[in-house]
Amino acid sequence: MGIRGVDLRVFQLEGMLNADCTCSLQAQFLEAMSSDASPGLMIDMSRVESIDDAGLTFLLLSQRLAYALDKRFCLYSVPTSIQTIFELAQFDRVFELEVLAEQAA
Q1: What is the pTM of this model?
Q2: What are the strands of the beta sheet with 72-76, ordered from one edge?
Q3: Tens digit of pLDDT for each residue in 8-40?
Q4: Are the CB atoms for 42 and 8 separated by under 8 Å?
Q5: What is the dihedral of CA 86, 88, 90, 94, to 10 degrees?
């Protein structure tokens, strides 16, 4: 799947993005970003039910790693409840947030 004409690897996150799951996710992201030839990652947040500080930290560290490897990192299909958290914490200014054409319609 790509946006703006660029093919990015898609990761589907789901459930609660918290300390219980971020360790295993961090290993998966490190593996994907280090070995994948794609120019970046799109993180599908559509199935994420909640996020805590560990989840936010995970996203920030993943973004930092992607940028260090000169890869794009963007979030899309962010649920309204999580979008509100991003806005309150001003993370909507930190993360690249995409709205896909089918969401905008």
Answers
A1: 0.83
A2: 9-17, 40-51, 72-76, 96-98
A3: 888 899 999 998 888 888 888 888 777 767 788
A4: yes
A5: 0
Residue 100 CA, chain-centre distance (Å), reads: 14
Burial, 100: exposed, middle or buried (Cβ in 10 Å; 0-12, 13-18, 19+)? middle
- Give dist(CA 1, CA 24) in Å, integer: 24
Which residues have a Cβ under 8 Å from the Cβ of 76 and sit 6 or more positions away?
3, 42, 43, 44, 45, 46, 97, 98, 99, 100, 103
Q: Which is nearest to 58 in space by CA: 100, 26, 34?
A: 26
Residues in the chain: 105
8 Å CB contact between 74 and 8: yes
Angle at 85 between CA 53 and CA 66, to 5 degrees: 60
Residue 72 CA from chain centroid, whole number: 10
Q: Is 42 helix (H, G, I), strand (E, B) or coil?
A: strand
